[in-house]
UniProtKB/TrEMBL annotation:
Membrane topology type: Multi-pass membrane protein
Parts of the chain that traverse the membrane: 35-54
All residue ranges annotated as the NAD-dependent epimerase/dehydratase domain in the record: 95-332
Domain of life according to the entry: Eukaryota
Name assigned to this protein: UDP-glucuronate 4-epimerase
Gene: 25493624
Organism: Medicago truncatula
Length: 436
């Protein structure tokens, strides 16, 4: 029940102010009271300074907006775009890869280019993790002949321009705000990239002529609190445990709408904890490696009942094969110029490894490969969006495009550790420059 409040005598923060005599409360009496007033102002200013020093805002993950003609546009820029999207005579695909300076994006873009498809990348180079790693991936892509446009998928004008210049047959949409636990620190970045950005991209695709077919990254996290294992595409996905998962689930709904109204061919891929060389420094296997080598303590989560927390860790090369399989079996969109002409393909696939491994085992493998004992602290999994267990049923992807993961966790981590040691000792990136 609402309490009756006497505004004359009750302070807004109960207990902080005495209900003083009203007529004395705001009067300043010189000279002593003026001196007190200045002291209060100065103290408030100092408290404000202290607060802003010890509570810096989370790093901005939103890239600055650019204007046409500033970082993109112009005849030179268009030549770079056209050159990058040239395909060889055997290929019938021109693919726009969003998030191409990211982990999965860079691997997929390279694989497409290697087999002769026309490929253009786009990435906003946000500062969620070390941007130097993203630029190093960009260099790899450039060496392979892939141009990466620096821009945000929220920039509808840029996307329209790209579709005006290039008749993309496919969009491989891998740009996203990733990470399960970071969603509690910076929820808006998930809304910005995974909802708003995705919608702007779909708007551009639906208006394009021809409309491209879209393959995009959803996430195993959509299964949330689902306890039926292994997770199959038909299982419940209405109990997300994190905002990240909720935005990916909402993305699947948004995708369905564009498929239904505009005839866009859309395929969602639910990735299961993808790892490997050129990976993401915010992921556990990556920062465990870094911290173990530095002799820093790592925190290993166990489930609240003392059981182990496990993931269906999936090696990057297996996921890349799955992405290409999904792209190659995607049917054409049926609409054009914003008008639907018939029903279009709508698919959802799990891309996992079908073999969950406890996080404690992941740590043991890393200790063996790095030849260093980890300083471990075992803690119950905090309520931060994590789920206890993931396990993919992959029979649908197997049936549709022969998806068959072949790399077990130890083999994959060996490849990752080799890359990590070479990369960070070669001076490509200064050690410790990462914010993770
Ligand atoms: O499958 C997915 O869709 C998701 O996979 C990962 O999310 P997650 O599985 O949580 O991967 P990590 O953050 O690398 O965590 C792996 C495991 O290590 C555990 N962990 C994490 C951090 C830590 O300090 N200690 C620890 O034990 C987590 O509980 C989890 O079980 C990615 O980060 C997400 O972007 C992706 O969408």
């Amino acid at each position: 029940m609402a309490q009756q409040v006497n505004n004359e005598t009750t302070p807004s923060t109960p207990g902080k102010l005495k209900p003083d005599k009203p007529h004395h409360r705001f009067r300043i009496h010189p000279p002593h009271s003026r001196y007190t007033f200045i002291c209060i102002l100065l103290s408030a200013f100092l408290v404000f300074l202290l607060f802003s020093t010890f509570n810096p805002p989370p790093p901005s993950t939103t890239a600055p907006r650019r204007v046409l003609g500033d970082s993109w546009g112009g005849s030179h820029w268009e030549r770079l775009v056209s050159k990058s999207t040239r395909r060889n005579s055997a290929s019938n695909k021109i693919v726009l890869v969003t998030g191409s300076a990211g982990f999965v994006g860079s691997h997929v873009a390279l694989a497409l280019k290697r087999r002769g498809d026309g490929v253009l990348g786009i990435d906003n180079f946000n500062r969620y993790y070390d941007v130097n790693l993203k630029h190093a991936r960009q260099k790899l892509l450039e060496r392979a002949g892939i141009f990466v446009v620096e821009g945000d998928i929220n920039d509808g004008t840029l996307l329209k321009k790209l579709f005006d210049v290039v008749p993309f047959t496919h969009v491989m949409h891998l740009a996203a705000q990733a990470g399960v636990r970071y969603a509690m620190q910076n929820p808006n970045s998930y809304v910005h990239s995974n909802l708003a950005g995705f919608t702007v991209l779909l708007e551009a695709c639906k208006s394009a002529n021809p409309q491209p077919a879209i393959v995009w990254a959803s996430s195993s996290s959509v299964y949330g609190l689902n306890s039926k294992v292994p997770f199959s595409e038909k299982d419940r996905t209405d109990q997300p445990a994190s905002l990240y998962a909720a935005t990916k689930k909402a993305g699947e709904g948004i995708a369905h709408t564009y498929n239904h109204i505009y005839g866009l061919s859309i395929t969602a891929l639910r990735f299961f904890t993808v790892y490997g060389p050129w990976g993401r420094p915010d992921m556990a296997y990556f920062f465990f490696t870094k911290d173990i080598l530095k002799g820093k303590q790592i925190t290993v989560f166990e489930s609240p009942d003392g059981g182990s927390v496990a993931r269906d860790f999936t090696y990057i090369d297996d996921v890349v094969k799955g992405c290409l399989g999904a792209l190659d079996t995607a049917k054409k969109s049926t609409g054009s110029g914003g008008k639907k002409k018939g029903s279009a393909q709508f698919r959802v696939f799990n891309l996992g490894n079908t073999s969950p491994v406890p996080v404690s085992k992941l740590v043991a493998i890393l200790e063996k490969l790095l030849k260093v004992n980890a300083k471990k602290r075992v803690l119950p999994m905090p309520r931060n969006g994590d789920v206890k267990f993931t396990h993919a049923n992959i029979s649908l992807a197997q049936r549709e495009f022969g998806y068959k993961p072949t790399i077990d966790l130890e083999t994959g981590l060996r490849k990752f550790v080799k890359w990590y040691l070479e990369f960070y000792s070669s001076g490509s990136i200064k050690k410790g420059s990462s914010s993770w």
